[in-house]
Amino acid sequence: MSRRLARETALQVLYQIDITGETQNIQEIIQNWAAEFNVSAKNMGFTQQLVIGTIEKREDIDQKISRTAHEWALDRMNTVDRNLMRLAIYEMNYCPETPQKVTLNEAIEIAKRFGGEDSARFINGILDKVMDASEKLEKEHKGNGE
Q1: Rounded Cα–Cα distance for residues 27 and 61 (Å)
Q2: pLDDT tens column, 52-107
Q3: What torsion do the CA atoms of 64, 65, 69, 75 make, to the nearest 10 degrees?
Q4: What's the mean pLDDT in 31-42?
Q5: Domains and CATH numbers, the chain
Q6: Are 30 and 13 in contact (CB under 8 A)?
Q7: Angle value at C-alpha 49, between 47 and 52, nearest 5 degrees
Q8: Closest alpha carbon to 12 in 21, 32, 90, 93
Q9: Burial level of 18, CB count in 10 A (0-12/13-18/19+)?
């Protein structure tokens, strides 16, 4: 449950940054939300990794979402959904210690709590396609001896 709390905290930070455009005081924003959610010191590092990593890889992540969600422009998506997908895609692609299916299930559960009525289904559909594409690419690399 504590890693879920770290993910939920990271989502709040990413949501705030997306809404306000604030990028100067990210550590302060993380600290404020971590205090609000009572994130343990043990999970603070994971929260920071998720936030900073998602921000650093945002362009690549947004391209993956755009390629997968053909009928949905990023700026027209629900802000919670968009940032939850960014967060999950970051974790799926850059945190190999977490199985992708775990990340997918966590994103669905968080969507049920923070998203709209259809958020969990929408996020599941997009992330499932991103996960399939990632697994296919990984198999191709292994097949090529990379």
Answers
A1: 21
A2: 999 999 999 999 999 998 888 898 999 999 999 999 999 999 999 999 999 999 99
A3: -140
A4: 94
A5: 2-143 (1.10.940.10)
A6: yes
A7: 105
A8: 32
A9: middle
